[in-house]
Design brief:
Shape of chain A: flat
Largest interface: A-B, 85 and 86 residues
Largest sheet of chain A: 7 strands, mixed
Number of strands of chain A: 30
Strand order of the largest sheet of chain A: 9-8-11-10-12-13-14
Number of helices of chain A: 22
Structural class of chain A: alpha/beta
Oligomer: homodimer
């Protein structure tokens, strides 16, 4: 039962963690500590399923109370086992888990799944117990899944290391690997996958993740060649880089990774924090990373199922052109609406296509796209088949949807037609059959055809396929550009970098900045104004004042000597009286900049995802619209462009009301360059460019804050 | 079988259209012109269903080829009938429809449903035929439903005047009245209603609406006391006022009106225009009218079904506070996310509630909101019952959702618990049961409990109930304010009103305007500048130049005599050379206005909905964000406030970055006042106020265009 993907090490070297995990989910032997002969109980259910559902490996129940359970010899303890099992299930009270885990280690076991609850989810005390488990696992070089988890299922090899209700029903294997942080919700999703006739190859509940994490477990699942689609449910993650590595590996393998993460909103994040006991990852950052690394995010379990159905059953389209054949004009309109909303085109057909359709169509149908064939195909089945085939031949059409409803009297004929289309068409298509007769979905699935019961769902599924195909292409394009960043040392201590030096840093990082001069006296300020030869702004400079406007520390648009002189003095006066403790270094003199677009650019260090760069619409609407997008640094020009394209204010870049269009190449290059610098400058803690003005001469940074922090 | 709601007129007076329609959908007798003995054919199916499904009235098949069909005497023509039937179905080829319709009229029939296609949907020629049908109906005082329609079903009285596939299955009656412009999509929706175990009282397909329209037919359906919820599917409407009257009547009756309208997007509208052959109604206006008159808009058929299920099965909550009891923390987070997105609060519980919950809960559950009871309730059923009851008693909670999954082994117990909660709770609650065992939904429905299979759907349904309850309250509040508008005559001819007069009109309409003076000479311009005593703008004035900036016709911020004089001359010079044909009246002199918020306000006459007022965010982002909202004029201050509250830029009104908050009362009053004036000024064709600046002194209109057109 050894899998082709797994090469075990020689006996001399201890196995790698990856190897242990791979063996854990495909074990040749399973021990159950605390095994019960009562098969309905948590500690009895794994045995029941292992025995009844055809597991072929060795089963070792461990419980001093029994001689035998379900025909298997029962052992009093781990030490009595004839061999070290590949997997040990621990189903004992919380207080006994540590001892059991140690016993597994002593017996040479490498992997344990701990069902028991009563750890981190109970608060501080439980968390300390949980850390103890992690330490024991570490001590023995073991992998630990859980605690407080439902365990896992490997449906290919009939491994039921779980007490999930899902295992009570049929658990047919299929191409989907599913890993979930939630037990109850994960069980529900698994059951919904089953209800749709799709199959899970793996079902893994990670529980408290004292040791093995979501990304690690999913990482081993996707290496199984039988898994073609990865699906995950998340509540929070601690190691962002592991998730990113997982996403990259999925793209290398050409396997889509679909994730649902809850905690999108402020209220949801609050609920998540109370539920998981840990701070939820910031959703906007998670979302940005998902976009950047080609993860398909599903907003809820229903959308996840729709995506899984499409991704596991349908070929990928080579573009985003949707062709629609419909029995109802209204349904065609609705699908066209949705297509526009989710980024699919419903292209005007080539003249040749229209001509061919018109020849096929009844007079009262519509041969545009959507093609409305009305109910006439009941009398003329060829009409349906030919119109779909003609439509799919159009070069602008990359994927098709066929909409129909009811038709209880014509099921056999229709399935025959769809099978013929499937055989003859080179492009993917989806059937949308509303209020379909029973059994139709299964029969179509048997023919390799994906079916949905609602038009918008079919369109969203098609969009998911097109998006994944584009992500795959993008991944390959960017993979070449990856290069290790050279670390940049900044010659400054912790805290805010003085403005003049910060401006110099930013110029080096690739951001054109408005020039600045520090004036310690009114005379110096006047000299600086003369040198610039244009109207200037004066801004207080102090390591203790970050928000200059709050203390009246900014004066704009001065263009004569008396004003510069007077304002210098009153600025210093005002700031020293409002902030008597602040050290005032003087005043920054800066020529006034102009621009018709006001952006804001920022860098921050996130505990989960590391260096994140933000760009967004500045000015009065910044806080209101929150029209910003994020990417993990460093990133390419292509990614920077994608980031800008995500902004709602995007059309402004093309020039509105006669303003010139923005040089997108230059702006993307600026962001990419800044991202490389920010990623390499490890001391950088926070950077704010607000505003970055875009005028006819291109972008120029006006105000900046750069804060450093030496990392321990 | 005479209905209590219907009072027929005395025989002396011809019945009203309303009375004819009411009789048509509850006929005592049905004739079928073109009746066939082949019950599978379009012209045989109504007879089949009328006979088999228990219609109690008289049935008159009409076809000279038969003596008898299905045990009913068959008549050779309308003239041979023993009485004038309440309803006549016409199922003959298109070319024979006109003659049949005339025969119905001659025989004293008042209502006809025309199945036949081959009319307006075929183009110009067909449309002319369709108008002929309308004229014949009019001539005889008849009501005509169709042509090109599937007809209708009245499930209460077993009237099957249809050939829809929907009638092939069971058509149990229920509290929902459904009227659809699409036959095929409507049939699909009806089948989905059936699949959910909900019942349609009426199913009506309006077809081409040569005579009876959607609003008219729905209008008669909602008067039936057995109908409690109205559901409609729309592709376009011609008479907006009829729809508004329908919406008002629904509120008077306390019956929710749920509408799905396709053609939301540009692509969708294009597809709709090609499908219906008519210009689709502008979606933003439809949407605004729906909000204004309390229509619940469903984005697709699935959302419509969810809404129908909630509205027909659940009491209305008295507020928007959602209490969640869940078996999965993750599902709780997801529902909380969705609640925030759809406008529900997930309130922090009162201390007393938390205390009571904590006493009930197991130690590892969470007694916040969401209340996470984990799977423990399987062992302790009372835990579930009590926690829901305690939660629903919290004064901040107005509706509850209980989330659970699978539980195949505990169905009876759970249904018993929910039934107990239903009996003891005074507030509504919804069960969300994911991957529920078969038959659970039906059993809960029998107990008067609404169940969904996905958490987000349950939350959206709860939001729909809360929204409808709020709309009902709002309707009652506004109903008092309705007053007939006095017509206002404007003493100007067609075309653009000169600026000075336009400003005076707008001031009368309640809009504070920046003052203006028309200067015919440079001397007059200088005098005006002196009189204003501040910086001014000069703007060219010409009935032939609407877009002044396009011709360089605007100069801003002049504050000395030489500038005013010079710019006057160069402005006149520039405009007369760029537009030699334009009549130049001189130059408008206007003091410079300032403000920190730039709005745009407009009025237009829409062919469907009449006078529509728009307000939105002005400036550079206007075209990009399209952050505007509409209302039909006239409207109340309350409605104006709602209109402003819809804007995405809404938080700006509260004052951002230290700017003062906007006086919302004053701004709402301005909009309401303008709306009353605009509705009363029938000559008004178009009005543009751009910008309306809001500064510390309140709003002031700066540039305006007022265009009049005498209506024929």
């Amino acid at each position: 039962m050894k899998s082709a993907t797994m090469t075990m090490n020689t006996p001399d070297l201890p196995p790698s963690r990856q190897e242990i995990l791979a063996r854990m989910i495909r074990p040749r032997s399973v021990a159950v500590i605390g095994a019960s002969a009562q098969f309905s109980k948590v500690n009895g259910r794994p045995l029941k399923h292992l025995l009844e559902k055809g597991y072929q490996g060795k089963i070792y129940p461990i419980n001093p109370k029994y001689q035998e359970i379900g025909g298997c010899r029962c052992y009093p303890d781990m030490a009595s086992l004839p061999e070290a099992p590949d997997l040990t299930i621990i189903a004992v009270p919380a207080k006994d888990v540590a001892a059991s885990l140690r016993a597994v280690g002593e017996a040479g076991g490498r992997a344990a799944v701990v069902f028991s609850s009563g750890f981190g989810e109970m608060g501080e005390l439980g968390l300390a117990q949980e850390h103890r488990l992690r330490d024991i696992a570490c001590e023995y070089g073991m992998v630990l899944c859980g605690p407080n988890c439902l365990g896992f299922i490997n449906a290919y090899e009939h491994v039921y290391a779980t007490f999930s209700q899902y295992a009570d029903g049929p658990t047919n294997s299929g191409p989907i690997g599913f890993v979930t942080q939630s037990g109850a919700f994960g069980t529900a999703i698994a059951a919904l996958v089953r209800d749709r006739g799709l199959g899970l190859g793996y079902f893994i509940n990670t529980g408290n993740e004292a040791d093995a994490t979501f990304s690690e477990l999913m990482g081993v699942v996707i290496e199984d060649p039988r898994v073609r689609v990865a699906a995950g449910y998340l509540e929070g993650i601690r190691d962002g880089q592991a998730l990113i590595d997982l996403a990259r590996r999925c793209h290398e393998l050409g396997k889509p990774l679909v994730l649902t993460k809850v905690g999108r909103t402020v209220s949801g994040a609050r609920a998540a924090a109370s539920h998981t006991g840990s701070l939820a990852v910031e959703d906007a950052l998670f979302d940005a990373v998902a976009r950047q690394y080609g993860v398909l995010r599903a907003r809820n379990e229903e959308q996840m199922l729709d995506m899984l159905q499409a991704l596991s059953g349908c070929a990928l389209p080579l573009g985003n052109g949707l062709g629609i054949v419909t029995q109802s004009g209204g349904a065609g309109v609705m699908m066209t609406d949705r297509a526009e909303e989710v980024g699919l085109a419903v292209p005007v057909l080539e003249p040749e296509t229209s001509r061919a359709l018109a020849e096929t169509m009844p007079t009262f149908g519509a041969s545009g796209n959507p093609v409305d064939i009305t109910g006439q195909f009941v009398a003329e089945p060829a009409l349906l088949r030919e119109s779909v085939l003609i439509l799919l031949r159009d070069p602008q059409v990359h994927i098709g949807i066929v909409w129909l409803q009811l038709m209880n009297a014509h099921v056999d004929m229709l399935i025959e037609i769809f099978t013929q289309i499937r055989a003859r068409a080179s492009k993917p298509f989806i059937v949308c059959w509303v209020a379909a007769p029973d059994g139709v979905a299964q029969r179509l699935r048997n023919e390799g055809i994906v079916m949905f019961g609602a038009g918008e769902r079919a369109v969203e599924a098609a969009a998911c396929l097109a998006r994944y195909a584009a992500m795959q292409k993008g991944y390959r394009a960017d993979a070449i550009q990856d290069e290790p960043a050279h670390r940049i040392d900044l010659p400054f201590g912790d805290g805010a970098v003085p403005t003049v030096q910060a401006v110099a840093l930013l110029e080096k990082a690739g951001v054109p900045m408005a020039p600045v001069t520090l004036a310690a006296t009114a005379d110096e300020a006047v000299q600086a104004w003369r040198r610039f030869g244009c109207a200037v702004a004066l801004k207080i400079e102090s390591p203790d004042i970050l928000h200059k406007t709050d203390v009246g520390g900014v004066v704009l648009n001065l263009d004569d000597e008396p004003s510069v002189r007077a304002e210098f003095l009153s600025l210093m006066e005002r700031c020293s009286s409002s902030r008597p403790q602040a050290r005032l270094s003087g005043v920054i003199v800066q020529p006034m900049s102009s621009g018709h677009i006001e952006l804001v650019v920022g860098v921050k260090r996130d505990a989960v995802f590391g260096t994140m760069v933000m760009v967004g619409y500045g000015g009065i609407l910044l806080e209101v619209l929150r029209d910003v997008s994020f990417r993990q640094a460093p990133f390419s020009e292509r990614e920077a462009r994608a980031m800008l394209d995500e902004l709602r204010m995007r059309p402004v870049f093309d020039g509105v009301r006669g303003r010139p269009a923005v040089d997108m190449f230059r702006l993307s290059a600026l962001l990419a360059s800044l991202s490389r610098w920010a990623a390499a400058a490890e001391q950088l803690s926070e950077l704010d460019l607000n505003p970055l003005l875009i005028g006819s001469d291109g972008p120029v940074g006006v105000d900046s804050v750069v804060i450093l922090r030496t990392r321990s």
